[in-house]
Predict the 3D structure of the following.
Amino acid sequence: MIDKIMMALKSIDKNKNRNFLTMLGIIIGIASVICILAIGDGFTHVATKGMQNHNTKNKVTLEFTASSDEDTKSGFTRNDLAVLEGIKGVDHVKLTSSNPEASVTVQHKTKKTSATLNKSPKKLKLYKGFGTKVDAGDTGNIFISKDLADRAFKGKALNKSLVINDNVFVVRGIYKIGDFEYRPDIYVSKTIFKQLFASQISQDEAKISVNPSASKKAVGKSAVNEMKKFGEDAKLGKYSISHPDQISKSFTKTLNNITYFVAFVAGISLLIAGIGVMNVMYITVSERRKEIGIRRAFGATAGDIRNQFLIESIVLCLIGGLIGILLGYGVVSIINSFLPFKAMVTTYAIIMSLSVSTGVGLVFGFIPANKAAKSPLVGLLKEE
Amino acid sequence: MLKVTNIGKRYGKFIALENINLEVADGEFLAIMGPSGSGKSTLINILGLLDQKYTGEYLLKDKSYKETNDNYLSKIRGDQLGFVFQNFKLLTTYSVYENIEVPLIYSKQKQTNKHALVEDVIKKVGLEGKEKNLPSELSGGQQQRVAIARAIVNRPNLIIADEPTGALDSKTSTEIMNIFTELNKTGTTIIMVTHDSEVADYAMRTVYIHDGHLYDDEKSVKK
Ligand SMILES: Nc1ncnc2c1ncn2[C@@H]1O[C@H](COP(=O)(O)OP(=O)(O)OP(=O)(O)O)[C@@H](O)[C@H]1O
Ligand SMILES: [Mg+2]
C-alpha cells in the first residue's frame, strides 16, 4: 500500500502546478469545514458550561436601572421584596446587587475624596504593611490601594488614620492593583462592611423563583407592573426583566446564519473542487494511456488500474485536505480574537475533514479511474 | 506451447487475418515475417492474450482462454507471458529499475526477493549501473535491453516480441538478438515479429504473413 501511495505522490508531483490549482478548491472547502466545526464546537462548549453554572430554568431576574449614573443607592427595598413575594406564582425572591461595592467619601486631614469599598478578600498581597487580610472581626483597621494612598495621602499612608463616612480607621496595608485586575480602593473587615456599608449598596437585582406551575413570562410582567406602581424607588429609575438566554438566543441565530453561509461556501467549493479533481483525473488518464497499456500487458488487472487512479485522486484530495486543515487552523486562531468565546479545532473536526477529502477524491475520481480501467488493451498499446 | 486453429480477425468489413493455422513447440524460437499491414501485430496480439476478439481456436499450453474473465487473463499475461515491443514502451518517468519491476508489482505469486530477481535480469541484459537512470538517459539498444529485462523478470514461458529491433541499427540489433538466443537456449519459447530477414535468421523457423494469410515458406506466398 505504501508503495502505491508513493507512486501516486510521484505522479502528482510530476504535474505540481496543475494539481495545486485543482487542490485550491479542496483547501478552501476544508478550511471552511474546519472553521464551522471549530466555531460550533467552541460555542457548544461555552453554552453547555454556562447552563451548568447557573440554572436559570425557573428564575426571572428583575433589574432596576437608576436614571442617574451617580445614584448607587436606589434599588429594591424590604417593602419591595414583600410586594414581589406577594405576586401570584412567585415562590421566593432574593435581592442581590449587580455591583457589590459601596461608594464612600473619605477624608484625611482636610482633604476629601470619593472611593469604592468592599469587604476584605481571604488573601491579598500587600505592597506595604503586614498581613494578608483584614480579619473578620477587626473593626479599626483597613487596607487601601496605592492609588488611593497617592490621592489622599500623597503616598505616606501606612499607619495613618482615614475618615470614612464619619468613622475613623487606621491604614494597615497598601496594595497595588494590577493592569488586568479589578479591586476597590478600600478593604474593610467583614463585620464593619455589614454594619456600616452593606445598607449603602443598592439592591438592584431581584431574583424571582417562579413556581413550576406558573408562567415565567406572566410573573415577570406582573412583577414589572407591581414595581412601577408600588416600588419605593420607582421615581429614580426603571424596572426591566433581564433575559440571559435571550442574548444567547439572538447570538445563536447570528452564529447559525454565519455557519450556514460558511457551510454553503464549503459545499460549493468542495463541489467545484470535486469537478476540478474529476477534470484533472480525466486529463491524467488520457495522458497516460500508454502507461495503462504497459501495466495491463504486464499483469495489471482492470481493478489494479482503477485503484491506482483512485488512490492518486484520493491522495491529491488528502494533500489538499491537510493544507486546508492548516489554513483552517490559522483562520480559527485569527477569528478567536473577535469571538466572545474560543473556537476549538477538535480531533473530530480533523478526522471529519480528512474523511470529507477522501470522500471527494473517491467520488469524483471514480469515473475517470473506471474509464482508465475499462479501456481496450490493444488500443492502449498503440499509444506513444 | 501453443496451437492456433483456423483463426480469423476482422476490423469491421476488413479482414485482417483469415484461416490461420500455427503450432509452436515448447522451446521454439519462431520468427514471423511479412510486409507492413499484413497482420503480424494483429496475430501476436491474439497470441499474447491482448486481443480476445477473434474467431477460431487458440490454445496456450492446451488451454483456451477465450471465455476467461479479464482478471484471470491479466494474471496469465503477468505470470506466463513476456512482451517486447518495437518502440520499447517504457514508462518514461520511471527509472530503469522501476520499469523492470513492473510485472513483479502485479504478480500474485509470492516473490521472496523481488530485488534479487530485478538485479538478476539487469545483469543478464548487461545494464549494471544503470538502475537509477531514466529511459531518456539511455541509448536505443539500452532501452530495448530494459524492455527485455522487464519481459523476463517474471520468468515467463513465452516471450512475444513485436519488431524488437525495428528501432535499432544493425549492430545493436545483433546484440539484442544474442540476448534472445541466450534466453531461448535456457528454454524460453520466443515468438518474434520482424521484417528484417537477417534478424529472422536467428530464429529456428520463420513463417510468413501476407494479406492476413499465413505461409510456411516464402516461396509459397502468392504474389
Ligand atoms: N483498430 C483497427 N481498426 C481497423 N483496422 C485495423 C486496426 N488495427 C489494424 N488494422 C488493419 O489491419 C491490418 C493489419 O494490421 P497490423 O497492425 O497487424 O499490421 P502489421 O503486419 O503489424 O504491420 P506493421 O509491420 O506496419 O506493424 C492493417 O491493414 C491495418 O490497417
Ligand atoms: Mg505491427
Notes: The first strand of chain B starts at residue 2 and ends at 11. Helices of chain B lie at 40-47, 70-80, 96-106, 114-124, 140-152, 170-185, 197-200. Chain B has one domain: 2-220. The two ends of chain B are 31 Å apart (CA to CA).
